[in-house]
Specification:
The protein contains nine helices and no strands.
């Protein structure tokens, strides 16, 4: 219901085009497309969170942490403190918006990759959201590639 499956299919198709094609230009376009759409998927997610009152006030995470599927005893304790949930909500929103910076700085892109890996590992373990880590693992090299191409094209200091 959150478009993750559609995004996974998009990543799969663009990376399949990369592997099937022998043309270096098509390979480059497939990687560039995958990187840009992957980075902007974070921005789109942040946009939808920031327009949602329950994400801005932290109650979205509170509700998520209390569900039977995603919740656990540690998260349940955390969900009782609205300050932590607001802090985590806004931290997530700001971090997801910062994905666009990863396309404009190869240095930040690497930092973004490390932080995103930790975020997705946490989600895999604590919330049992395993698919995002696998998709991110496939997409991050493309984000880095897109960053190098954009930085070189615009001639931004790395």
């Amino acid at each position: 219901m959150n478009a993750a499956d559609k995004f996974s299919i998009t990543i799969f198709l663009s990376l399949s085009i990369f592997w099937i094609s022998n043309d270096l230009n098509i390979k480059s376009i497939a990687l560039l497309y995958t990187g840009i759409i992957s980075a902007f998927s974070y921005v789109f997610a942040a946009y939808h969170k920031i327009i949602s009152p329950v994400w801005r006030n932290g109650k979205g995470l509170t509700g998520l942490f209390k569900t039977e599927y995603y919740g656990n005893s540690t998260l349940l304790k955390l969900s009782n403190n609205i300050f932590y949930c607001q802090f985590l909500s806004w931290g997530t929103i700001i971090f997801q918006f910062s994905a666009v910076i990863a396309l404009l700085s190869t240095t930040y892109c690497l930092v973004f990759g490390v932080l995103s890996s930790l975020f997705h590992i946490f989600n895999s373990i604590a919330l049992r959201i395993r698919g995002f880590f696998l998709v991110f693992s496939a997409a991050f090299p493309c984000i880095y590639y897109a960053s190098t191409v954009i930085v070189d094209f615009i001639n931004i200091p790395k």
